[in-house]
């Protein structure tokens, strides 16, 4: 943790808001998602029109739209919640589906009743 000062309040260590309520990492993820989503329509447009320049044009246009509209969605999802809530929520949803990424194996995904008392008969033990 060479880049982080642990004795400062947590708000000073938080990543700054860069664009439309998103941090730098979120802007990057949103832009890459938009680029990836725009590659297929760009390739189809390039094939139909015979202009190879359609691929990057449509990809960058989709990245811009993803940043503009995705920023509004991200702001609405994170309103009033801690900064890491959205990521942990996504991690938890993936872990419940059986996809354990980025430390998801440490999450408790079992649901059921818990008891504070000892059972009269414990399976595998003495009665």
From TrEMBL:
Pfam families: DUF3487 (PF11990). Keywords: Membrane, Transmembrane, Transmembrane helix. InterPro entries: DUF3487. The chain crosses the membrane at residues 44-69. NCBIfam families: conj_TIGR03750. This is TIGR03750 family conjugal transfer protein.
